[in-house]
Amino acid sequence: MNKSDGERVQTVIEGMGYRWTDKEEEAGLLGILACSVRQKSIDKVYSRIRKWNAWKKSNNLLTFVSGCILPADRTKFLKLFDFIFPVSEIFQLPDMISQYGIVTPHQQITAKATLPVGKSAGFSDIHLDAKRGKVVQPLFVKPEEHIHDFWTIRPSYNSSCEAYIPIQNGCDKFCTYCAVPYTRGREVSRSSAEILNELKELVKKGYKSVTLLGQNVNSYGLDKHGHEITFPQLLKEIGEFGQNSGKRFWVYFTSPHPCDMSDEVFDVIATYPCLAKQIHLPLQSGDDDVLKKMNRKHTVEDYMKIIASIRKFLPDATIFTDIIVGFTGENEEQFEHSRQIMEIVKYNMAYVAIYSPRPGAVSAKWEDDVPMDVKKQRLHKLNEELIKHTKEYNRRLIGRKISILVTGTDRKGGFLSGYTEGRIVARFASTDRSLIGSYAEIEVASASPYAIEGELVLKPEFPVR
Ligand code: SF4
């Protein structure tokens, strides 16, 4: 989501006439889109701003922070950054800078700041901190308030073949370990007409992989109470467009919540070739009591019914997940239940995270009582479990001809890399950079737990997942 937000932030900054520099120390404007999911990311923000503030003694430097910021950090950031605002307010950055007494490069030329069409230059939620002489956004009372304006900003896509389309922002689920509902606000769905237009434009330009984004992507439309189409209906419209476009592209989505998942979603995906046969379904825990404590609002049985539906409608689909280990009070038996689910589902990828309390989230009030060494052991065990299955799955692909989207050069010199429709990482020996951004067929020669390697074959074959 931050990557996607960053593409819109980039547009606004470039609209102010700023140019990008590779040398951080030479910049006149430096900003961070923060992520509060883990403390480590926030620690990085503090170390960065300390460095930047030291540079201010000799540089004319302005700093800002936006993104997912917890209330406790927000208070501290106010003292460290020049500007702090919800990302949905980025279009007000030119005004904030002017108010600060700085003339942006673009203003030097045109004496006029660039704002999205139809946006007034007012800044109702921003005030001047008279004591410090700074323009600040003191509170994120409703971080979702200007999200529709934010979505109208044309993104500066950072890839010529892969793109993200935000379709929904915020969350109403309130999982006890998560701070998103407090940092991003309540669920707001983007208009389906806008989403489809953005998709059509991307496909027209030749994009081959598009990911629909949202904190709770499959609750799309529900906040509009019948005045917007639902998530499966949106997928259907995308599928129909794919059928009629005559172009080949893959559409993914992340992250869905099991509670809002229905067979209809998988049925639609099975119907249309452009809807990628890859499902990310967060598990978080394989134990009912832990799920309850996490306020996930579903049981393991509910979750496994969804897995059964995926296997029924989409037998070739790859399945990814997220799991937390060491959540408050998680005992060995409860952890073992998570491992058992991994054994049954045989995920193609699992993002396993060690639980850390997020200030502001409900669980932060509870004792973080699982020792770190135990959490690390559990993380290791789940990663071992994952590898067993990914290795086996990937090995079964050896000898097969597989369609992949080539996305760039590989770290291994002389190789290009990309991924299959099921998002299995793939690489093959080639230095032909003209293949980047197109589909290629490879014959798989070897496999590791996290990737496959093959040889480029000239004759296109039917894609496999
Ligand atoms: S569903 Fe839960 S984990 Fe996901 S964003 Fe909402 S509160 Fe956070």
Q: How many β-strands, per DSSP?
A: 18
- Hetero groups bound? iron/sulfur cluster
Trace the largest sheet across and list its strands. 14-15-16-18-17
Mean pLDDT: 89
What shape does the CA trace take?
globular
Q: Give the radius of gyration.
A: 23 Å
Major pleated sheet: 5 strands, mixed, barrel
Helical content (DSSP H or I, runs of 4+): 25-40%
CATH architecture grouping of the largest domain: Alpha-Beta Horseshoe
Please report the distance between the alpha carbons of the first and last residues: 25 Å
Notes on the protein architecture:
The protein has 465 residues and is α/β, with parallel strands linked by helices. It folds into 3 domains: 135 residues, Rossmann fold (3-Layer(aba) Sandwich); 249 residues, tm_1862 like domain (pyruvate-formate lyase- activating enzyme, Alpha-Beta Horseshoe), CATH 3.80.30.20; 57 residues, OB fold (Dihydrolipoamide Acetyltransferase, E2P) (Beta Barrel), CATH 2.40.50.140. Helix content is 34%, strand content 20%. The protein is built from 14 helices and 18 strands. Strands 14-15-16-18-17 form a 5-stranded mixed beta barrel. A 3-stranded parallel beta sheet has the order 1-2-3, sandwiched between helices. A 3-stranded parallel beta sheet has the order 6-9-10, covered by helices on one side. Helix 13 links the parallel strand 12 and strand 13. Helix 8 runs parallel beside helix 9 and helix 13 runs parallel beside helix 14. The longest helix is centred in the C-terminal third of the chain and has 24 residues. The radius of gyration is 23 Å and the shape is globular. The chain starts with a helix and ends in an 8-residue tail after the last strand. The C terminus is likely disordered. Iron/sulfur cluster binds next to helix 7.
